[in-house]
Amino acid sequence: MAEKGEQEFRPVNQILGSQPSLGPLPADQIFPWIVIALTSYFIVNGIFGGLFPDDFQRWLWTILIAGWGIATWWILTGGRSWRFLSKFIGVPTWTRGFARYQSLLEVNHEAKNRKKKHRHRRSRRKINTI
Fold first, then answer.
1. Residue 129 lies in a domain
2. What is the mean pLDDT of the chain?
3. Using H for helix, E for strand and C for coil, what is the string for 23-83?
4. Which residues are listed as membrane-spanning (predicted)?
5. Is 124 among the domain residues?
6. DSSP code of residue 22
7. Number of domains in the chain
8. Residue 45: domain span
9. Residue 81 has pLDDT above 80, yes or no
10. Residue 116 parent element (H or E)
């Protein structure tokens, strides 16, 4: 009996189903973090570079803005990124409708057809009952 219990369980690889990472950093976050860091560098050094008197302040603001952007992105898309990112996928709207036929050659096609049709009133015949 003890041998049957041991045979029921199979060893499973612990890595299966886990998220790929480079050390402590999740692999799916690296590319957005690089984009955020480069954008903060270009904003601070390119646009506002003349406002800072020395390089230390430029790098300090670059690191602060990049850290803020990276932290915000990681909070929004961290463990379950589909919760936030799925909001930006366009969902098709299904409607049911019927287009009205309109002839390109004759604009008043429906009006002409209505004139041709004659509506006759049905006359009710009286049935003689005793």
1. no
2. 77
3. CCEEHHHHHHHHHHHHHHHHHHHHHCHHHCCCHHHHHHHHHHHHHHHHHHHHHHHCCCHHH
4. 30-52, 59-76
5. no
6. E
7. 1
8. 26-75
9. no
10. helix 109-116
